[in-house]
Write a structure and sequence with these properties.
14% strand; four-stranded antiparallel sheet; elongated; 8 helices; single chain; alpha/beta; 2 domains; two-stranded parallel ribbon; 319 residues; Pantoate--beta-alanine Ligase, Chain: A,domain 2; 41% helix
C-alpha cells in the first residue's frame, strides 16, 4: 500500500499557526500581568492617598486641640501658631511615616465685610471706609470709581439680603451676616474671581477680607495692607515701625492701643470699637504628604460660646 507523502508547505503553515497562537497567548499574558500590576499600583496609591488625607485632617484636629490649650490675653504673630514650620514639626513628631505641612492664618486680622451692614440695616461707615482705603491701594490696580462701584455693590447686596426671610432650617439669631462662605461673594458680581483669589500679578482680596469673626480686627495680626488702611495717611516707614513693634514687643500687645507708643496720639486712629487683640477665628490649611501622594484639607476654627474654645465651623478637603 502506498502512502502519500506530506507536502513540505503544510508543515510550514502549521508552524506559522503555532507561532501565531503562541504570540497571541504571550501578548495576552503580558497584558494581563501589566493590568494586574497597574491595579495593584492603583490600590496602593489609593491607600496612600487616603492616609495622606487623614494626615491632612489630623493636622486640623491637632491645631484645634493646641489652640484650645493655649491660654493668653491676646493673640499675636510671635506666638507658636503663627510659625508654620515649628507648628508642623510638632505635629510630624508623632508620625514615623508621612508628614503634614500646616499653616494657620488669623481670620480676625482681616476686614469683616459681613459687619459692613449693621443689624438695623444701617451702613457701618468705619468698615466701609476701611474697605475703600484697602481697595485704593496700588496693588489692586483699581481706579477710585471702580472701588466705589465694588463697595456699593457689596453694600446693596447685603442690605437686600438682610431684609429677605430666612430659610426654615436656621433662625435669625444664627445668622451673622449675608455671606455664608467666601465664594458667595462672587454672586454679588462686585468682585471678580481674579480679584477675590488673585492672579500671578496681583494678590487675592480673600487674604484681607473675611466673613468670620465678631466684627473686630485683631491689630496684632492684621496683614500690612489692612494695617495701613487702619491708619490713613501713614507712610511706609511708620507702617514698618508698627509691624516691627508687633513682632518684638510681645509684653505690650495686650493693650489694643499699643500703636500710640509708635505714632503717638496725633493723626487719625482707628475707632476703638473696631480693633481688638484677641482672635476669634483661624483658617487652618493642612497638606498631608505620603509616598508622593499629596492631599489638602482647609478648616475654619471659630470660638464657640465659650470664649476660650474653638470649634470647627467649615471643612474643605481636596482628595
Amino acid at each position: 500500500m502506498m502512502t502519500t507523502p506530506k507536502k513540505t508547505g503544510e508543515k510550514g503553515i502549521a508552524l506559522i499557526v503555532v507561532l501565531c497562537i503562541t504570540a497571541v497567548m504571550v501578548g495576552a499574558a503580558v497584558q494581563m500581568i501589566s493590568q494586574t500590576r497597574r491595579e495593584v499600583s492603583e490600590t496602593i496609591n489609593l491607600g496612600d492617598g487616603l492616609q495622606a488625607l487623614y494626615l491632612a485632617r489630623s493636622g486640623i484636629a491637632f491645631s484645634k486641640a493646641l489652640l484650645n490649650a493655649e491660654i493668653s490675653d491676646y493673640n499675636g504673630l510671635s506666638q507658636s501658631w503663627a510659625n508654620a514650620e515649628t507648628w508642623s514639626a510638632r505635629f510630624n513628631a508623632s508620625f514615623e511615616e508621612g508628614k503634614s505641612s500646616i499653616a494657620i492664618e488669623d481670620e480676625t486680622g482681616k476686614i469683616p465685610i459681613n459687619y459692613m451692614i449693621k443689624k438695623d440695616g444701617v451702613v457701618n461707615l468705619a468698615i466701609r471706609d476701611l474697605l475703600v482705603r484697602l481697595l485704593n491701594q496700588p496693588q489692586w490696580k483699581l481706579t477710585e470709581e471702580q472701588t466705589e462701584q465694588i463697595v456699593n455693590k457689596l453694600q446693596d447686596w447685603m442690605v437686600k439680603n438682610s431684609q429677605q426671610p430666612l430659610g426654615s432650617s436656621e433662625s435669625k439669631t444664627n445668622i451673622k451676616g449675608p455671606f455664608r462662605f467666601p465664594e458667595e461673594i462672587l454672586k454679588t458680581e462686585a468682585i471678580t474671581k481674579d480679584l477675590l483669589f488673585g492672579t500671578a500679578n496681583r494678590p487675592g482680596l480673600n487674604s484681607y477680607i473675611t466673613i468670620y469673626g465678631n466684627g473686630k480686627i485683631n491689630i496684632n495680626t492684621t496683614p500690612k495692607p489692612v494695617l495701613k488702611a487702619l491708619f490713613p495717611g501713614i507712610n511706609e516707614a511708620t507702617l514698618e515701625r508698627l509691624d516691627q513693634f508687633r513682632h518684638t514687643e510681645k509684653d505690650k500687645l495686650k493693650d489694643p492701643n499699643w500703636f500710640r507708643q509708635v505714632i503717638g496720639t496725633s493723626g487719625t486712629n482707628p475707632p476703638s470699637d473696631l480693633i481688638g487683640v484677641k482672635s476669634e477665628a483661624f483658617r487652618v490649611t493642612s497638606t498631608g504628604l505620603l509616598k508622593g501622594c499629596r492631599r489638602t484639607a482647609m478648616g475654619i476654627l471659630e470660638r464657640d460660646g465659650n470664649p476660650e474654645k474653638f470649634k470647627l465651623r467649615f471643612l474643605l478637603m481636596n482628595s
